[in-house]
Amino acid sequence: AAGRGSGASIQEPPSQELHAKLAEEWLGRLTVVEGLQSAAGAELNGRLGEVRDVDPKTCRLLVRFDPRHPEGRWKKVLSSNCRPTGLELPRGECSFCLETGSALVRPCLCRGEDVGVHLSCLAEAYESLNAAQVKYPTCPTCKENYDARLAVMLLEFEFDKLKLICQPGAKARIFGLSTATSLNGRVATLVRRDETAGRWHVEVGEELKAIKEENLIVEGTEAPRATNLLRGLGVAYGSMELQSAAARVTEKVVAVEEFASGADNPELAIPLTNLGVIYLGQEKLEKAMAALDRAFALKADDPPPTILSNLGRVHLAAGDFTQAERFLSTALSKMGDDGKTDRHDHDGIVPVLFQLGEAQFMLHKHTDSKNTMERVLAIQERTHGKSHVFLSPTLQRLAEVYVEEDNFPDAAQVLERAIDIIEIDRGPHASMEPIFQRLVVIYAEMRDEEKLAKVKDRIASFVQKK
Questions:
Q1: How far is CA 238 from the centre of its chain?
Q2: What integer is the mean pLDDT of 119-128?
Q3: Which of 124, 140, 146, 205 has a CA that sits 20 to 30 A from residue 422's CA?
Q4: pTM
Q5: Residue 258, CA distances (Å) to 216, 263, 310 in order
Q6: Which residues contact 215 (CB under 8 A, 6 or more apart)?
Q7: What pLDDT does 168 receive?
Q8: Which H or E run includes 161?
Q9: Which of the pair, 132 or 286, is modelled with greater confidence?
Q10: Distances (CA, A) of 325 to 145, 360, 386, 396, 412
Q11: Measured between alpha carbons, how far is 63 from 27 in angstroms, rounded to an integer?
C-alpha cells in the first residue's frame, strides 16, 4: 500500500536500530490505517489491522487486516500511516479461549471495561454463529453492535468466502450506467481487465464493451446471504464514514433487489433510504433527494420515521426549511412524540429534534427553536451526563438562539460550557477556535471588559498549548 504523500521508496537501507524500534513499538499491536493516497491504498483507510511484522528491507509495517489472512495477504504500510485504535486492551486473558498472548480487543462493554477477546476468537465465533443466516456483527449477550471497524473486518471475510469476484469467464449483470443505459440489466461475460483504464472488457451478446467494476454485479450476488452481507457492509462502511465504499455496495443492493423483485417492491424503501443517507453524507443532495423521494413513494400509505426524518435532513441541507420542518415534525409524531410532554423523550429522537431546531432557527422561529434545543440538551444530559462531548453542538446552537433574543449572558454561559467540555474530552482542539471567537464578539457586545480580557487570555493559552 502506498504511504503518505507520493509513497516514494526509501533511498537508503533502513538501519537495524530503526527496525528494532518499530518492532518494539508496533509488533502485535492493533492499528487503524489512514492517509494512504494510491487507489489501492485508499481502500485500506479507516481499516482495523494487526501489525504482524516489520519488513527488514523497507521498515514498513506488515499489517494483517483479518486474523484468518495468510502471510501473503498482509499489507506493507508506513508507520506514519498507522495510529492506535482505541479498541486495544493491555495483554491479558482472552474471555473466549482463556489464553494469553496476542492483542485483545473490547468489542462491547457487557463483560466489563477490562475484558477483551482475541481478534481470531471473535472472528471464529462470528463465523460459527452466522453459518446459517448472516447478521450484522453484534454481541450475542448484550446485543450491542460491534465497533464498525470490527464489523467491516468480519463481514468482508464472510463475503470473500463467497468468491463473488470479477474474474475472466465470470457472468455479471450490468447496472447503474448513466450513458449506454440500454446495457443496464444485461448479462455479460467477463473477458479481461484493462488495468490502465480500470475497466473490464466484457462480452454482451456479440459485442465487446468496457465497463467499470462498480457497474457489474457478479452472478450469485442475488443470493440472500450475499445480499445480506452487502447490506451489513453498507451500514458498517457508512458508520466508518467510508462513504464511497458504502455507496458502492448499497447501490448494488438496490440493483439486486430491483432485478429480483421489481422496481415497485415496497421492501426497496429500506436500501433506498440507506442510500439516500449515504449520498447526503457525500453532499450529493440531488441523488439523496431522488433516493429518499423514491423510498417515500414506495411507502406512501404509511411512511416510517426513518424516511421522513432523512427527507427532513435533505431539505434542510438544500435550504428548504419549511419542508424540512414539516418532514421532521411528522417524523417525531410517528415516533410517538406529542411535543407537549417528555414521556417519549429518549436519546433516539435527539437527531430528529436537533435538525428540527435547526430548521426552526432558519425560519426565524426562535422561541420554538430555543424550546426544541433546550429539550435536546435535557435529554442528552440525562443520557450522557452534563460533561459529555455530545452536548457541545447543542450548546453552540442554543447560544445562537439566545443571541437572536439579545440574551447575551446566557449565550456566553453555554459557550463557556461548550469550551470546557471539549477541553476536558480532547484537550486544546481546533473545534474550540470558532467558539472562542464567538465569545469575543458576545463579550464585546455586552461591553464586559473583564470577561473579554479573560477569554482573550484563554485564547492565548490555547494557542500556546496547541
A1: 4
A2: 87
A3: 146
A4: 0.78
A5: 14, 5, 22
A6: 174, 175, 176, 177
A7: 94
A8: helix 148-161
A9: 286
A10: 31, 7, 28, 20, 28
A11: 10
